[in-house]
Amino acid sequence: MSSARSRTLRETVRDNGLGLVFGALLLLALLGQAFTGQAEINSRADTLGLAHVSFWEYVTSSNFTVDVAENWQSEYLQFLLYILLTVWLVQRGSPESKKVGASGRGSDREQKVGRYAEEDSPKWAKAGGWRTRIFSHSLVLVMGLVFLGSWLAQLVAGRSAYNSQQLSNLEDPVSLGGYLMAPDFWNRTLQNWQSELLAVGSMAVLSVYLRERGSPESKPVGAPHDETAVEG
């Protein structure tokens, strides 16, 4: 029985390797950010003759929260836009694009919904009506909710961090609406947006001409540059 359990565990790790590795890397990156951020804050405190903050105090502070939230909202904005735009727009030669001329939502038969659903199709794909409509857009809905939630967290935590700086400079704090219109908020936001838009745009275009053998994000090494929607 223990051998069967081991095989099952090995199969689970194998079948979910990508998600597990990225999850572990995310946790390591968050821990690294937390420890280095705490070290930076305490280094400033030494310079100003202030007390150090503990690790727990730092990771529950507005400074840490706003840094994490602004990264998350920009990442989810990137994928939200890419998922939506690739419904209607194409990039000839890119494996990240649908074939030229195949833009749009697709027919029920192509999407395997309703009466065209297969035996092992998800239940809500078979159900029809509002459930199928929601399931048909569930990826964008979840991506959009995470983006809005992290963007709101950035706004709230950013205002708190900004007001702490304002008070230390003997200046008046700002309201939530006031911070929403402040250059600090949009400077933080747009810095992250431009980097994500650059990354996803570069991926779509560079994958037309460049290859990575064996990657589903790349075309086969010998595929013509103008061959679209094929994976290696």
Can you offer a commentary on this structure?
- The chain is mainly α and 232 residues long.
- It has two domains: 1-60; 65-101 and 139-232, no CATH class.
- It has ten helices and no strands.
- It starts with a helix and ends in a 23-residue tail after the last helix.
- The model has no long low-confidence stretch (mean pLDDT 90).
Q: What is the tally of beta strands?
A: 0
Overall pLDDT score: 90
Please give the alpha-carbon distance between the first and last residues. Answer: 39 Å
Helical segment count: 10
What best-fitting shape do the alpha-carbon axes yield?
A: elongated
State Rg.
23 Å
Taking the sheet with the most strands, its summary is: none
The oligomeric state is: single chain
Whole-number tally of structural domains: 2
